[in-house]
Write the structure tokens for this entry.
Amino acid sequence: LPPIDTSLVYLNARVMSPAALRQLEDFDVVISQYPLSAERRPANVLIASRSDVKGTAQTAWQAASEIAAPRLETLVLTSGMQPIEIVSQRGSIIIEVPPAPPARDTTGAGDYFAGGYIDAMVRGLDAGAAALAACGIAASYLAAS
């Protein structure tokens, strides 16, 4: 990874080199898209499309914990306009997605969601409020596209 002066890093990479994975230990907070290869990577937050994670919230948490241990705090499961499920060691909560105008092309909406989630998290919002804020950011992007 290039040298950067920050305490938070966001990853959206299928596979990372062993050296880059070791560097993740240097950051206070790591937020990552759920790796489709199930590559182990330290992360405080994993964001995943529900279609990429099989099973119940409990089994999804167990799989995510194997990927992101020992740092994992939150697993955010999105599914388009369907409710978002936020899973932690304490259980799960469901966040209803606010209505949004229909979009012809949803490409990029997940990246905007992740950016909105990170922004809300940095501003101190809890996971549920961060997910709602992220929905607003993604909806604004889709309305403009």
